[in-house]
C-alpha cells in the first residue's frame, strides 16, 4: 500500500515555489521494515508504519542523494518542469542558498 505525501524539504530554496509545485506529492509505502545496528554493533529489525515510515523514507532519501523530483512520475514531472527549471535558473550552482 502507498500513501501520497507532499514533502516540504528545507533544501528547496525560499521563497516557496508557486503552485502547482507545492502540491506535488510522491507515493511511498505506508509501512517499511528496517534492519540496522545499535551503537554496540548489535543488529536489530523494526517495522515503521504511517507517519514514522514516511519520515524514515524521506530522511533515508537524503542519505542517498535522492531529491523530491526524483520520486515524481514522468507525468507529474512534465507538468512542473517549467517551475523546476525556473528554480534552477533562480539559484545557479555555487551561489549561497539563503535558507
Question: Could you walk me through the main structural features you see in this protein, from its secondary elements to its overall organization?
Answer:
This protein has 99 residues and is of the alpha+beta class. It has a single domain, classed as Peptide Deformylase (Alpha-Beta Complex), CATH 3.90.45.10. The protein has two helices and four strands. The protein has a two-stranded antiparallel ribbon with strand order 1-2. The chain is flat and about 45 Å long. The model has no long low-confidence stretch (mean pLDDT 79).
From the N-terminal CA to the C-terminal CA, the straight-line distance is 34 Å
Say which CATH homologous superfamily is assigned.
Peptide deformylase
Q: Could you name the ranges where pLDDT drops below 50 across 5 or more consecutive residues?
A: none
Could you give the order of the helices and strands? EEEEHH
CATH level 3 topology: Peptide Deformylase
Task: Report the sheet with the most strands, covering strand number, pairing sense and barrel closure.
Answer: 2 strands, antiparallel
Radius of gyration: 16 Å
